[in-house]
Amino acid sequence: MVVKNNVNEKMYSIYVSDFHLEMILVPYINEKLKNNEDIIIQTEKDLTQTIEILVTKMNLKDEEKLKILKLGWQKGEKELKQNSNIIIIGKQNYIEKINSKIKNNNIDCKDIVDCYEFEEIKDKINEIICRYNKSLNTLGYNKK
User: Fold this and answer.
1) What are phi and psi of 105, to 5 degrees?
2) Which residues make Cβ contacts (< 8 Å) with residue 86, sequence separation at least 6?
3) What's the order of all strands across the beta sheet hosting 84-89?
4) Measured between alpha carbons, how far is 114 from 87 in angstroms, rounded to an integer?
5) DSSP letter for each residue of 63-103
6) Radius of gyration of the chain, Cα coordinates, nearest whole angstrom
7) Residue 37 neighbours by CB under 8 Å, 6+ apart
8) Is residue 89 within 8 Å of residue 115, measured between CB atoms?
C-alpha cells in the first residue's frame, strides 16, 4: 500500500483554555465556511457549551453562528472526508493518533490544525513547534 501525504497546510495551535482555543478557531473556521469548504472537528473533549457561549457574544451573522455550532463540537471521532479541513483537539497522543489515521487512510486534506493545550506540552513546546511551518493563533496564520 502506498501512503501519501496530501495536505495543503499543516499547522499547530497552542491554547490555555477552551475559550482561548475557540477564539483562535472561530475566525479560521468562518473564513473556510465562507469559501464553502468542509470542516471536521475531531475533539477529545466536549466543547459544545463553551462554543455556544462564545458565538453568542461574537460579532457574526446569525447564519454564520449556526454553521459554526453545527460543526459538531462534541467529544468523539467523526468520519474523515476527502478535501476537508480537519481540526484536531486533544492530548498529544490523541492528535498523533488522528494524524496517523489520516495518513494511513490516504485522506487528502486541505488543512490540518493540531490544537495542543499549553499545560500538557509546556515542557516540550520547542520539540512540537519544530514539526510545523505554520501556526494559528489569535492574530491568524503565522509562518516560520
Assistant:
1) -95, 10
2) 39, 40, 42, 80, 98, 102, 107, 109, 111, 112, 113
3) 39-43, 84-89, 109-117, 7-15, 134-137, 140-143
4) 6
5) HHHHHHHTT--SSB-----TTEEEEEES-HHHHHHHHHHHH
6) 15
7) 84, 85, 110
8) yes
Q: What is the pLDDT of residue 144?
A: 63
CA dist., res. 93 & res. 57, Å (int): 33
Quote the pTM value: 0.92
Going by C-alpha positions, the residue among 16, 39, 36 that lies closest to residue 26 is: 39
Residue 44, amino acid: E
Q: Which residues of 8-41 are buried (b: 16+ CB within 10 A; e: fewer)?
A: ebbbbbbbeebebbbebbbebbbebbeeeeebbb
State the burial class of residue 71 (Cβ atoms within 10 Å of its Cβ: 0-12, 13-18, 19+): middle
The answer to whether 8 and 111 are in contact (CB under 8 A) is yes
Give the helix, strand, coil percentages of the chain, each rounded to 5. Answer: 40, 25, 30
Q: Tens digits of per-residue pLDDT, 23-52? A: 999 999 999 999 999 999 999 999 999 999
